[in-house]
Amino acid sequence: MSSIEERVKKIIIEQLGVTEAQVTNDASFVDDLGADSLDTVELVMALEEEFECEIPDEDAEKITTVQGAIDYVTAHLG
Amino acid sequence: MNLEQQIALVTGASRGIGRAIALELGRLGATVVGTATSETGAQAISAYLAEAGAKGCGMVLNVTDPVSIEAVVKAVGSDFGAPTILVNNAGITRDNLLMRMKDEEWDEIITTNLSSVYRLSKAVIRGMMKARQGRIITVGSVVGSTGNPGQTNYAAAKAGLLGFTKSLAREIGSRGITVNAVAPGFIDTDMTRALPAEQREALVRSIPLERLGAPEDIAHAVAFLASPQAAYITGETLHVNGGMYMP
């Protein structure tokens, strides 16, 4: 079983079409990884599916970086 | 045109235009779930689909109830697969002169004819985004463009969904989902049969093709927009009105 961090990063790579090297922990989806607002919505959808949970919209809006996604998943589902 | 492998959700399918749309999509190979507000209506839909040899069934849906919408979209997903075609057809009229219009008449129209389009589109879009394909087609009305005395509420809702259609088309075009509207003119259905004979005759005289439309005329336009052949059309309103209004 991969760690939460690995699973989160794998989803980001797939969803945003970026390379592993780009997905540093402090990378921002929009500023560093070229995501638009719809990409970030889809990313949250993919996280919900991977971790079988529902992320409320108010929380989803706050997940803007790779570390933010890892922290959220760890805190709520880990 | 071929719609094999497609799952279509058609609201307001027990009669009139919705029924014709459900049958046409079914004839082209789609699995069709038609919705009605009552159990009797849903059974009638199942029956006519079966009789026509089409795949799918009828389901009960109250388009003004978010819980009902969620339940139906979920049921379609588990019974047949996530919808790839949504046809927002369900609609009602509550005609009255503005000076006499009651708040309920206004609100009912906005809730049933416009807010339902928002709710249903939102409910199916997740599956379409994942599939990277989808068709959302909303049935508007010529009066959304021309206006009609006694229909400030109805015309406002029908014009509103055109703005909705264009905005959503811009939002999700990058995911291969098209969003369009079909605006019928005067179609021979229960809704227009409610008009006085005199008014109907005057209407026909204003139509270059000199007849009311048939529900099938609308169904063909919807089926085209649902088909792969219409892949490059989005944010568009297709007017099907015998020439009575030409934008």
Automatic annotation (TrEMBL), chain A:
Domain Carrier: where? 2-77
- Protein localization: Cytoplasm
Maturation and modification: 4'-phosphopantetheine is transferred from CoA to a specific serine of apo-ACP by AcpS. This modification is essential for activity because fatty acids are bound in thioester linkage to the sulfhydryl of the prosthetic group.
Q: Does the keyword Heme apply?
A: no
Task: Write the record's keywords in alphabetical order, separated by commas.
Answer: Cytoplasm, Fatty acid biosynthesis, Fatty acid metabolism, Lipid biosynthesis, Lipid metabolism, Phosphopantetheine, Phosphoprotein
Pathway assignment: Glycolipid biosynthesis; KDO(2)-lipid A biosynthesis; Lipid metabolism; fatty acid biosynthesis
Q: Which family does it belong to?
A: Belongs to the acyl carrier protein (ACP) family.
The protein's name is Acyl carrier protein
Gene name for this UniProt entry: acpP
UniProtKB/TrEMBL annotation, chain B:
A single MF term (Gene Ontology): NAD binding
Q: Which InterPro entries match?
A: 3oxo_ACP_reduc, KR_dom, NAD(P)-bd_dom_sf, Sc_DH/Rdtase_CS, SDR, SDR_fam
Report the pathway entry. Lipid metabolism; fatty acid biosynthesis
Active-site residues, Swiss-Prot/TrEMBL: Y154 (proton acceptor)
Q: Which PROSITE patterns match?
A: ADH_SHORT
Domain Ketoreductase per the UniProt entry, residue ranges: 6-190
E.C. code:
1.1.1.100
Keywords for this entry? Answer: Fatty acid biosynthesis, Fatty acid metabolism, Lipid biosynthesis, Lipid metabolism, NADP, Oxidoreductase
Q: Quote the catalytic activity from the record.
A: a (3R)-hydroxyacyl-[ACP] + NADP(+) = a 3-oxoacyl-[ACP] + NADPH + H(+)
Q: What class of enzyme is it?
A: oxidoreductase
The record ties this protein, via Gene3D superfamilies, to: NAD(P)-binding Rossmann-like Domain
Task: Mention one GO biological process in which this protein takes part, according to its record.
Answer: fatty acid elongation
Q: Where does NADP(+) bind?
A: G12, A13, S14, R15, T37, N62, V63, N89, Y154, A155, A156, A157, K158, I187
| Functional note | Catalyzes the NADPH-dependent reduction of beta-ketoacyl-ACP substrates to beta-hydroxyacyl-ACP products, the first reductive step in the elongation cycle of fatty acid biosynthesis.
**Family statement:** Belongs to the short-chain dehydrogenases/reductases (SDR) family.
Oligomeric state and interaction partners are given as:
Homotetramer.
Name-wise, this protein is 3-oxoacyl-[acyl-carrier-protein] reductase
Species: Plasticicumulans acidivorans
